[in-house]
Design goal:
Radius of gyration of chain B: 21 Å
Oligomer: heterodimer
Strand content of chain A: under 5%
Order of helices and strands of chain B: HHHHHHHHHHHHHHH
Radius of gyration of chain A: 19 Å
Number of helices of chain A: 15
Number of helices of chain B: 15
Largest sheet of chain B: none
Structural class of chain B: mainly alpha
Distance between the termini of chain B: 57 Å
Shape of chain A: globular
Helix content of chain A: over 70%
Chain lengths: 293, 290
């Protein structure tokens, strides 16, 4: 295949693969720990970082990283106090998106830059940034490998882990920092708005198919790479955006597999309850029984 | 440029008109949205609307109709799911992603470049046409009339669905009808603040109002007042300082929300109480005794 002789396509495949593996593994823990909303929040806060970076003339990856890792540390430190505070978090997200819009306006290249950040494309990332993405991705994977066992333990059963002397709080902040780096990286590939496709979809599909953590993680990484390659190949051969193919492929696969598994085993799968989602317990209920939980 | 000379431009007239209409409806519907704990649904509906707006652009139709079609469908879907969408968080997230991806494909097919996507995502109240204002007016009237008709039932069903159902209020039907109102409101608000910042008009004013008072009528009133104030002040500042409207409104909404939190905080309450020692139930001695 002659497309692989072009440097930027080879780079895109390489970076896309590293990011897909990292994101899928981090995504497994995100689903396990019920932190999908935190990931969502991080990506939106990153929008202000990426646009601010464009304004002061540094790379958008650097700006994004600064904001996502900074916000990740804050979220990690305040984790308990942030649960169930959707309205407050939503207001902060709206503010940071608004700030991003202001930065773009001041930068005067508004729309094009905004859409590039929101819907991203690995095919238009600069070579220097690809190298940084590879280095960061490698370091994050290494960090993840080092804390893998205690992180799995404290994600599945935080109370027992704490009693056994696992530094649960430290792990939670370290994990949030890794999540910050991952979000900044995956946004380069599919953009802020489509990040769920690579972060959540592969892990959620894998959880439907397998039970053992190691199998789920392997499958998630494999799915992530497959979706990325699928998207890249189609985008190289057709004039349509790569992020559309990645996000479309991932979300359609998720919906098909979830639909099938519901048909085959109606009560088989129960994802962990999401503590931040407000319409799980409606407010009337909480007012009526403040000590029920 | 002062306010009077601003209002001589048709574009600014349209912006103020649309901004006011949308703010009134968003303030009302937002209150019930918070009361029913459906802010996430509002967020999801606006994202689904993006695909509708982009599809409408592709077909050469006014984006508001695409928005309406998609948000209404999704709203009825969410309404039909009822109050037990417990394990659906990830599924809703993935469907939102799929819709956004579809929207980005439509934009790419349309060759309308980034500008069109940008205006749907971040609002385009300055470029709103007279036709859009008329459509907005009609739909706002319809939603307000609907809210007025169902007001008592909606309030009852939102505060205490169990008792309301026992008293014969058609709770499920009310939920569906309410989601239709939300869908229309979201579609209209997207014109002003865009898909991504729907929170600023739909949730911001209502959340601030609920921090300030527990009484439904007062909260509704404050919520509408704040929403209108944000959108007027936002549009005014945007014209004066040449900032994006979306930025101004979202910052105002954030400041308003923060201020309401501070006023509602126990510390400020205590300060206010010491400033008014004649109010009997605020006496320091009683606190100690209790």
């Amino acid at each position: 295949m002659d497309i692989f002789q072009q440097d930027f396509i080879r780079n895109a495949f390489l970076a896309g693969t590293v990011v897909a593996v990292l994101t899928a593994i981090i995504g497994y823990f995100v689903v396990l720990r019920g932190e999908a909303f935190a990931a969502h929040a991080l990506s939106h806060i990153g929008f202000a970082g990426a646009t601010g970076a464009a304004l002061i003339g540094i790379s958008s990856l650097a700006g994004m990283l600064g904001f996502t890792v900074g916000a990740a540390i804050v979220i990690g430190a305040l984790e308990k106090r942030l649960r169930g505070r959707d309205v407050e978090i939503g207001m902060v997200l709206a503010l940071s998106l608004g700030l991003g819009v202001l930065f773009l306006h001041l930068y005067t290249r508004g729309a094009t830059e905004a859409v590039a950040i929101l819907f991203g494309s690995i095919l238009s990332v600069e070579p220097a940034e690809i190298h940084w993405m590879l280095i960061l991705g490698g370091v994050s994977l290494l960090g993840l490998a080092l804390m893998f066992r205690p992180l799995t333990f404290s994600s599945i059963d935080p109370e027992t882990a704490e009693a056994r002397g696992v530094p649960v709080r430290f792990l939670s902040i370290a994990f949030m920092m890794l999540l910050g780096v991952t979000v900044a990286e995956v946004v380069q590939v599919v953009g802020i708005l489509l990040m769920f496709a690579l972060l959540i979809a592969p892990a959620a599909i894998a959880q439907h198919l397998f039970r053992r953590p190691a199998a789920v993680i392997l499958a998630a990484a494999l799915f992530g790479v497959v979706f990325t390659w699928f998207g890249l190949l189609l985008a190289v051969w057709t004039p349509y955006p790569v992020s559309f193919f990645i996000a479309g492929g991932a979300s359609v696969s998720y919906l098909i597999i979830v639909g099938l598994s519901h048909l085959l085993h109606p009560h088989h799968y129960r994802p962990p309850e999401h503590p931040d989602r407000e319409f799980v317990d409606h407010p009337q209920h909480q007012h009526a029984h403040p000590h029920a939980h | 440029m002062d306010l009077r000379s601003m209002l001589e431009f048709p574009a600014f007239q349209n912006a103020f008109l649309a901004g006011t209409l949308v703010a009134i409806v968003a303030g009302c519907v937002g209150y019930f949205l918070l009361l029913r704990g459906l802010t996430f649904a509002g967020h999801a509906l606006s994202h689904v609307g993006f695909a509708g707006a982009a599809g409408a652009l592709l077909l050469g139709v006014d984006p508001i109709f695409g928005l309406l079609a998609f948000t209404l469908l999704a709203g009825i879907g969410i309404g039909a799911m009822g109050r037990r969408p417990d394990e659906r968080d990830i599924t809703i997230g993935i469907i939102m992603t799929l819709m956004l991806a579809l929207g980005s494909l439509f934009i790419a097919l349309y060759h309308g470049y980034a500008e069109q996507a940008y205006s749907v995502l971040f609002g385009t109240v300055m470029g709103i046409s007279r036709t859009d204002v008329m459509v907005t007016l009609v739909l706002c009237m319809a939603v307000l009339a609907g809210l007025a008709i169902f007001f008592r039932m909606l309030l009852f069903a939102s505060f205490d669905p169990g008792v309301a159902e026992a008293r014969g209020v058609p709770v499920k039907l009310i939920a569906m009808i309410f989601m239709v109102f939300v869908a229309v409101t979201v579609s209209l608000s997207v014109q002003v603040v865009g898909v991504l910042l729907i929170f600023t008009l739909l949730v911001g004013p209502a959340a601030a109002a609920m921090n300030l008072t527990a009484s439904p009528m007062r909260a509704l009133f404050i919520s509408v007042f704040l929403a209108v104030a944000y959108s007027w002040l936002g549009i005014y500042l945007a014209i004066r300082q040449d900032y994006p409207v979306t930025f101004c409104i979202s910052t105002l909404a954030f400041i308003g929300f923060l201020a309401s939190k501070m006023i509602a905080s126990p510390f400020i309450r205590r300060l206010l109480a010491t400033a008014r020692p004649e109010a009997p139930h605020f006496h320091g001695g009683e606190r100690g005794a209790a």
